[in-house]
Amino acid sequence: MNINCSKGLISAVLVFLLNGPIQASSFKEKFFDDFHKTILFYKINQPHFQRIADDTGLKPSFIFSIVAPEITQFNMLVNTIQVSTLKVLYVEKGADYSNFSIGLFQMKPSFVEALEDEVKNFPTLKEKFANVPISSNDFRNNRVERIKRMTSMEWQFKYLQLFCEIMKIRYVGKAYRTVNEQLRFVSTAYNTGFQKPENEIVRMQKVKCFPLMSTTKYNYSEVALAFFMETRFEKH
């Protein structure tokens, strides 16, 4: 390897190592209050994350970090407006017409519909999550029930657990070099769409497009990783 190539490789490694922490630090500074309120949410709700951890084999702080960036962006007024909109447009016409993110974990109706479909597709999930799919032939009533569930914290935790279970099944043979690498992949899948091809999820790990309404954009997985670094040594 020549000297110029060596310098180029060293520079690339430094960018890889430093860009994430710097970006995450910038997010913490810009959303300081929201960041620490989200940490407090984890401490208060740790038993719920622990329950999911017991069922999935993942660490509670890992599970929390998947949704933590979304929690920082929750706004009660905006959420109320979006829920009201979904109750009209989504209920009447479906996710193609209205597909807002709602609730603390910022889930979309299309995301929840995809989770329901996965339960039907994987026999191992059918018994454990038998009550998740809404199987009535009345699509309008199904959507009403789905929105009702999505505004419930109990159901948001259930959907989060189901997402974790699905990712384990879908990527059962995928090797992660570190738990940080695993979190980056799983959190990106949560944010960008777990139904997308693996190469698209990997590509999105490098894209800065979060939060949607902020002029300064960050990489979702790096923000998730920042929360994991803050909470991974919490007593469980």
What does the model show?
The chain is an all-alpha fold and 236 residues long. It has one domain. The protein is built from twelve helices and no strands. The longest helix is centred in the N-terminal third of the chain and has 28 residues. The radius of gyration is 19 Å and the shape is globular. The termini are far apart. The N terminus is likely disordered.
Major sheet size, sense and barrel closure: none
The residue fraction in helices comes out at 55-70%
Alpha plus pi helix count: 12
- Shape field: globular
> How many separate domains make up the residues?
1
**What is the succession of H and E elements?**
HHHHHHHHHHHH
Low-pLDDT residue spans = 1-19
Q: β content, as a range?
A: under 5%
Gyration radius (Cα, Å) is 19 Å
Distance between the termini: 48 Å
Structural class: mainly alpha
Mean pLDDT, to the nearest integer, reads 88
- Oligomer state of the chains in this structure: single chain
Q: Find the count of extended strands (DSSP E, 2+ residues).
A: 0
What tags apply to this protein structure?
236 residues
Quick summary of this structure?
With 236 residues, this protein is mainly alpha-helical. Helix content is 69%, strand content 0%.
